[in-house]
Design brief:
Elements lengths: L1 E5 L4 H12 L4 E5 L6 H11 L5 E3 L5 H10 L2 E6 L6 H6 L1 H21 L4 E7 L22 H19 L4 E7 L1 E3 L18 H10 L5 E4 L11 E2 L1 E3 H15 L4 E7 L5 E2 H12 L5 E4 L14 H6 L8 H14 L15
The structure holds uridine-diphosphate-N-acetylglucosamine.
């Protein structure tokens, strides 16, 4: 019996594969490699000493997905696969609704057909939208402001209806805050295509010399230093949260959402300073205008995950920056050509 990890070659997926293997699980990966590289899987094998079956297929293909379930036995699914750029979802919403919703529907149909009813779903803090009060609890009103966030909320609603209709299902919905960092080996990490939108990948690329200077999006927010506050979480802590969530779904029924963050907010200027401390490199930056759609402050209440999953984030901001920097300095241009692992189709 194995755990199916959809989107397992992606940033969070690849780190979670390592955590799963280290926890003793067998893992099967499916990925369409639209925003990930086979090299990530090669390196997961290098880190864990275990070769993982990797299927290059798109979840929107029901025949391929049915074949995957016919030829493997899964005890649970961790579903990462999906598009995740907020800005792209605004400019091309149909691409997001089509990809994220139809891929999930095909996956759920196959799970239902083959009697696999344990699921950990990769959601996002973006489902909360702009909140009045912080920290955000899971019971907060859900009002995403981007098509990306709405696709995740729609899937949460779909899952909730499914569990209500078929109570043997067990689903953990994980709402990530701001995942950053990389595996401490420096072999795998975040590899955004093109110019990064997110803060830590952008700083890393300035530090390594790929980009000249960081624009801080606004310094007139109602925060102590005027820059936005976010809840950054190390991707390895996020990965261990998935293992805990998997243990959770395999021992009960129903649907439960969990925030995964540290519960600690850091401003943009604090992140720059932590990165400089971790890397020893001075980051050139300047203040620019606010970015549309940014909330001033966002951080999680993680009480539910700590109490019910017995999950405790362990990395601090400077550790996150150190590991992000190790990965970026090892691989200034991200994943490079490596012998690809055998890909099953
Ligand atoms: C975004 C997504 C979230 C996703 C997360 C991934 C939204 C509403 N949410 O969060 O769904 O999970 O990325 O990490 O977009 N900043 C700069 N200069 C830059 C880049 C960012 O000052 O070049 C600032 C932003 O204004 C923000 C903070 O850094 O205040 C964090 O930004 P970012 O890393 O893009 O994450 P979020 O927008 O919080």
């Amino acid at each position: 019996m194995a755990i199916l990890v959809t989107g397992g070659a992606g940033y969070i997926g690849s780190h979670t594969c390592i955590a799963l293997i280290e926890a003793g699980y067998d893992v099967v990966v499916v990925d369409n490699f639209s925003n990930s590289r086979t090299d990530a899987m090669t390196r997961v094998t290098e880190i864990t000493g275990r070769s993982i079956p990797v299927y290059d297929l798109d979840l929107s293909n029901p025949i391929a997905v049915a074949h995957l379930f016919l030829t493997n036995t899964f005890e649970a699914v961790i579903h990462f696969a999906g598009l995740k750029s907020v800005s792209e979802s605004v400019s091309d919403p149909l691409k997001y609704y089509s990809n994220n919703l139809s891929g999930t529907l095909v996956l759920l149909e196959a799970m239902k057909k083959f009697g696999v009813t344990n699921l950990v779903f990769s959601s996002t803090a973006a489902v909360y939208g702009m909140q009045e009060s912080m920290p955000v609890r899971e019971q907060a009103p859900l009002a995403p402001i981007s098509p990306y966030g709405r696709t995740k909320l729609m899937i949460e609603m779909m899952l909730s209806d499914l569990v209500a209709a078929q109570p043997r299902w067990s689903v953990a919905v994980l709402r990530y805050f701001n995942p950053v960092g990389a595996h401490p080996s420096g072999l795998i990490g975040e590899d955004p295509s093109g110019i990064p939108n997110n803060l830590v990948p952008y700083i890393s690329q300035v530090a390594v010399g790929n980009l000249e200077t960081l624009t801080v999006h606004g310094d007139d927010y109602p925060t102590p230093d005027g820059t936005c506050i976010r809840d950054y979480i190390h991707v390895m802590d996020l990965a261990s949260g998935h293992v805990k969530a998997l243990d959770y779904v395999m021992s009960r029924h129903g649907l439960r959402p969990f925030n995964l963050g540290t519960g600690i907010g850091a401003s943009v200027l604090e992140v720059i300073s932590a990165f400089e401390q971790a890397s020893g490199i001075k980051i050139p930056w300047h203040i620019g205008p606010r970015r549309i759609g940014d909330a001033a402050i966002s951080y999680a209440d993680v009480t539910r995950a700590t109490v019910e999953l017995d999950w405790h984030p362990t990395y601090e901001l400077v550790d996150m920056c150190r590991d992000a920097w190790r990965w970026q300095s090892n691989f200034p241009h991200g994943y490079q050509t490596h012998p690809a692992p055998p890909v099953l189709t």
